[in-house]
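P.,

For your records, the input lines for the assembly:
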Amino acid sequence: MAITMTVNGVKQPVEVTPGTPLLWVLRDHLGLTGTKFGCGVAQCGACTVHVNGLPRRACVTPIEAVANGEVTTIEGVSGPEADAIRNAWQAIDVPQCGYCQSGQIMSAIALLQAKPTPSDDDIDLAMNGNLCRCATYMRIRRAIKTAAKEIKS
Amino acid sequence: MSQPHWIAILGVLLMAPLAVAQSNPDNARSSSPSATLQPLSAFADIADDTQRARALFAEIGKVIQHPRCVNCHPRTERPLQGEAGALHQPLVVRGAGGMGAAGMVCITCHNADNFRNVPGHPRWHLAPAEMAWEGKSLTEICDQIKDRERNGGKTLAELGAHMANDTLVAYGWRPPAHLEPAPGDQQRFGQLFHAWLEAGAHCP
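Structure tokens returned:
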């Protein structure tokens, strides 16, 4: 089936089998491999992207669900929240192995867009679906708070 | 299969016992619900309105107390999942309007329709706290759904239409393949509910 969506600001017509997860369209059809495959069942968050401005697990999002929609991946995310999160991630040196980090960053940006000054509880609730096998959770929380302060200032 | 895939799967498997351990024993149904819902005709011989209404609501309760319904009418801020009412994994909460927490809303994972193992509906969300059914007796649920303070301000007629026609209620009979549907179907459920209303909406 033919589907058109906007990915990182660019219209992308794709021809895929109905029911193909968005993740595979991004990675295999469009070559956007920054979004990772982790569990495939929405339990780890590695595949998090934004669809129409909200976080989505691309592994359980059928391509039909994003027809004519706006998809943003780690390669194209921008704006004050994205800038602040990138700065904080680098300053605090958040990643260890890094595999989960694109999903972590996309969720963190979505959180700051929805809640500019999140509490520890807000961060835990927003980020608990993003697993990190290196257990960088404390650095992630610190980086989100740092980014929130940067945006506020 | 790539190494990260296996590591992630291992992580999920390791979490599974945790999910079971976190399940609330009160959620466990004392007996399995009937696989079917009796037709309206099964209640025709009960002449007394009060007795017929009570019998009808006991039948309706097979649906209302089924995990497909109770799991999204939890007594805490956290939805349940599966047949045993385990706490939802990953951890999610009711949040504003029942749509989840900021940055982790229901539609982060749930689509407008079922997709693979993930249930879906365009209005997928948790029932408000005042509509909690988890752990309540059928009598308590019956009193609750008639109370406009605890049923979203619905009249009994509106409640009947909701039960018979609402497409989110209909999800109960068409979950993903790995989940058990509610007994019967929505048409029969709606007929029973309307008959209960007509018999006086008496509670068991």
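Two observations worth noting. DSSP finds seven helices and four strands in chain B. Residues 54 and 80 of chain B are 28 Å apart (CA to CA).

Regards
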